[in-house]
Amino acid sequence: MDTFPWQGAARALPARAFADAAKVLGCAEAELRAVWEVEAGGRHFLPDRSLLRRFEPHHFPAGHWQALGFAPGRRAPWRASLALPGAAREAMLCRAFALDAEAALRAASWGAPQIMGFNCREAGFGSAQEMVVAMAGAAEAQLAAFVALIRAWGLGTALRAHDWERFARRYNGSGQAAEYARRMEAVYRRHGGGAKSPVVLRVGARGPQVRQLQAALGVADDGAFGPETLAAVRSFQGKAGLPVDGVVGARSWAALEGRAAAGGTPVHPPAQPTPADALADQLRGFAGAAAAMSALAATLGEFRAVLPDQVFTLAAFGAVGFALVGAGAWAWRRVRA
């Protein structure tokens, strides 16, 4: 076969594409760009103008693995697939296509949004081959498939609420959802003129942010998002003409702020963090640890003048040891967060 379905016209994305796609989703262009730029691969086509792709042999029927040259051995198939270099993937994709074209296309991710072929129907196509041909023809088809997938997976509400973490969990899995969410918020601020998204609150949330919400809703401000708060949120959303999902995101906060401007309880929702915010928090923590060590050194200096050498050495060793353990524990918590 001289050509493959992933070789097409490779037409570039028109300037109006994101504005038009945002209208379909009923969201702001900055909101759509926030998830696109984090979830998409950064380019639509390869240098040879063929469709961006990544074959995942563990999704191809196992009975053909030997013919592909895919041998996981004792490793989990997905781990063996993850370790493959790009050239090996491409060779396997061509072999797989010769064995079973549709199965091969279903076992690969395609285009900038990296949509797996087996999600072709949710992306708006009748088959994986139909999806690949459309995506290879135009970058606009890749954006349209992304929009269709958002709608099929019910992620439009999360997008409009700026519930980036929920979006990331559905699109990528739970592994790095919080980090993806922070990146989305950073992109949203860049495209939204610096506007910050308020935190997203739902059942189970606790803390001062929940108290702010409860005060605005006029319910007991115990700081725990439980059944009473959920009922109040649902009631408010219904009266405000919002989707009644019990999740307080960007639009619910905006409606609460609008009510406050008309004479209700003032609302000042805290903003979601970005990677820069997380870095600043870490730097503040390190600065605090450094200040504590400086204070410890000054204190030890004072004791040095009145304690015998042996006693001073033991005291200094113990104090510094406790300080290092404490700093290490702090750093470990930050890494695991």
Spell out the blueprint of helices and strands.
Elements: H1 17-25, H2 29-39, E1 53-55, H3 65-68, H4 77-82, H5 86-99, H6 101-106, E2 108-110, E3 115-116, H7 128-137, H8 139-152, H9 156-161, H10 164-172, H11 177-191, H12 208-217, H13 227-239, H14 250-261, H15 275-304, H16 309-336
Antiparallel strand pairs: 1-2, 2-3
Number of helices: 16
Structural class of the secondary elements?
mainly alpha
Helical coverage, percent range: 55-70%
Question: What Rg is obtained from the alpha carbons, in whole angstroms?
Answer: 27 Å
Mean pLDDT: 85
Along the chain, the helix and strand elements come as: HHEHHHHEEHHHHHHHHHH
Number of strands: 3
Low-confidence stretches: 302-307, 330-337
Strand content: under 5%
End-to-end C-alpha gap = 51 Å
Q: Which strand order do you get reading across the main beta sheet?
A: 1-2-3
Shape assignment: elongated
Short description:
The chain is built from 16 helices and 3 strands. It is mostly helical.
Describe this structure in words.
This protein is mainly alpha-helical and 337 residues long. The chain folds into three domains: 17-154, no CATH class; 208-261, PGBD-like superfamily/PGBD (Muramoyl-pentapeptide Carboxypeptidase, domain 1), CATH 1.10.101.10; 275-336. It has 16 helices and three strands. Strands 1-2-3 form a three-stranded antiparallel beta sheet. A hairpin with a 4-residue loop joins strand 2 and strand 3 (115-116). It is elongated.
